[in-house]
Design brief:
There is one protein chain. The protein is of the alpha+beta class. It has five helices and six strands. Helix 3 runs antiparallel to helix 4. The longest helix is centred in the first third of the chain and has 21 residues. The structure holds 2-acetamido-2-deoxy-beta-D-glucopyranose. The site of 2-acetamido-2-deoxy-beta-D-glucopyranose has 6 residues, from helix 5.
Length: about 200
């Protein structure tokens, strides 16, 4: 009985080993970048490639003169105020490597198109009727969930963690990310959001 199962195990191994060595190597993953676009008062995009890394630190944010957007693999997402509400705004396209890298999704190259399409479709459902800085936060939260839910992506990615240090400065200094003055009501929402996201920091 015992020697029979050892024989079985051995013969299984002998069959499996050559199979393991002849399996095709999986295709290289494709990377989808998620980047934060910060456009300074002069209209230049702050980018790792053109600016010293030290110039990108959150403490140097110029809250009232910067325009912010999210760059998902070349597609731009931003909101802007129009009369008394926020609507979709900003540029539609960017270079895929433009902006400050928040994270990368690795996608199996055979599922790249599918993953990209699903992601874009999901992001289109996020309401742009939100202050720009918070709209970007909501988009990042959704990308994180999608990354876990989509079979072709299926990975953990901490985009908000990378974004929060930048966002905190904007919230504290009442920067809109759209080069407009926030209303008193909007500033109050910022204050609440700060208290919620950074409890104990004092919120100012
Ligand atoms: C931002 O707005 C809040 C609410 O009006 C205010 O208390 C706070 O002092 C403002 N912060 C700055 C840096 O202007």
């Amino acid at each position: 009985m015992r020697s029979f199962s050892v024989f079985l195990l051995l013969s299984t191994l002998l069959v499996m080993i050559p199979i393991a060595f002849t399996l095709p190597t999986p295709p290289l993953p494709v990377e989808i970048d998620i980047r934060l676009i910060r456009i300074n008062g002069g209209g230049s995009i702050l980018c790792e490639d053109f600016v010293d890394k030290e110039d990108l630190v959150p403490s140097l944010i110029d809250p009232h003169n910067e325009m912010w957007a999210l760059n998902l693999d070349g597609i731009g997402y931003a909101s802007k105020p129009s009369q008394d509400k926020w609507i979709k705004g900003g540029l539609k396209t960017y270079g895929v490597k433009t902006g400050i890298l928040l994270g990368k999704l690795e996608v199996d190259s055979s599922k790249e198109e599918e993953a990209r399409t699903k992601l874009i479709k999901a992001l289109d459902k996020v309401s742009p009727t939100e202050m720009d800085v918070l709209y970007i936060y909501n988009l990042l939260a959704l990308i994180e969930t999608q990354a876990l839910a989509l079979p072709s992506l299926n990975q953990k990615i901490a985009l908000r963690e990378e974004y929060l240090p930048y966002m905190k400065v904007m919230l504290e200094k009442n920067g809109s990310g759209a080069r407009v003055e926030l209303t008193q009501e909007e500033k109050e929402r910022y204050k609440q959001t700060l208290g919620h996201l950074f409890p104990g920091s004092g919120g100012n």
